[in-house]
Specification:
This protein is mainly α. The protein is built from two helices and no strands. Helix 1 runs antiparallel to helix 2.
Length: 79
């Protein structure tokens, strides 16, 4: 006779939700870095007429900073 699967304990669910919230925070920080620096680059383009270089440089800086922050945060989470 097969045993029915045991329901997960509430403590395991809470740990999973806490970990999921931490990882979603890391993703939010990454997207925020891209958005903020992309916006700043766009505004630089509007002010100085350097289309599309300000936006591209802003996105690259945002990507680099976002990756740096993301790697640092994930390193802290996995300790």
């Amino acid at each position: 006779m097969e045993e029915s699967p045991k329901p997960p304990k509430r403590n395991d669910d809470a740990k999973f939700m806490a970990l999921a919230m931490r990882y979603s925070g890391v993703v939010t920080e990454f997207v925020a870095c891209l958005g903020v620096f992309g916006f700043v680059g766009h505004k630089v383009d509007e002010k100085y007429g350097s289309d599309p270089w300000g936006l591209l440089i802003g996105l690259m800086v945002g990507l680099g900073l976002g990756l740096f922050v993301m790697i640092r945060q994930l390193d802290k989470l996995n300790r």
